[in-house]
């Protein structure tokens, strides 16, 4: 029960870490496009950014689940083979003779696992930010964009656009035949129509 309470106490810190990672990813992505995204983000955008990233990139969820499963499999294999040389090298001077020793070792491995997951998430979010930013930049330069939306603004002219991102206050997009990124407040767009799924 104490173990569960400890995990519940760490959840807010984990979410705060995810928010920082979401901000880092968005900042890196938009920096490559010449935009300071923090100037265009509300507190709500910042708070939901990690959830939005995970919902839009199933690879994040798959990688996180895979790392957790691999950690537990590694633990099981390590404990079952504690008598072998490779296991003894990994464990160092720590000996597993009883069930209590196993429980103690499991508790000691939790911080190592937390650091490993934190580092993995950091690398993943930074990699996604760099990769997406470079990809969008290259596609804008070569005009190799799939114009996936049609907007009607207050001027009532339908325009095909490539939507880079949307937050609670702004649309970030490139119009067909243009290489400049436009930032439009949500209130200036009358309708947004999906014309080509990503």
Written overview of the protein:
The chain has two domains: 2-141, no CATH class; 149-194. Helix content is 60%, strand content 16%. The chain is built from five helices and five strands. The chain has helices at residues 2-31, 43-56, 58-80, 85-91, 99-142; strands at residues 149-153, 158-166, 170-175, 181-185, 189-194. The chain has a five-stranded antiparallel β-sheet with strand order 4-3-2-1-5, with no helix packed on it. α1 (2-31) packs across α2 (43-56), α1 packs parallel to α5 (99-142) and α2 (43-56) crosses α3. The longest helix is centred in the middle third of the chain and has 44 residues, at 99-142.
Outline of the structure:
By secondary structure, the chain is of the alpha+beta class.
Through-space gap between termini = 46 Å
Count of discrete structural domains: 2
Which structural category fits the helices and strands?
alpha+beta
Tell me the overall shape: elongated
Number of extended strands: 5
For the largest beta sheet, what order do the strands appear in spatially? 4-3-2-1-5
Order of helices and strands: HHHHHEEEEE
Mean pLDDT over the full residue set? 80
> Radius of gyration over alpha carbons?
23 Å
Work out the helix count.
5
Indicate the percent of residues in helices: 55-70%
Q: Beta-strand level of the residues, as a percent range?
A: 15-25%
Poorly predicted runs are none
Taking the sheet with the most strands, its summary is: 5 strands, antiparallel
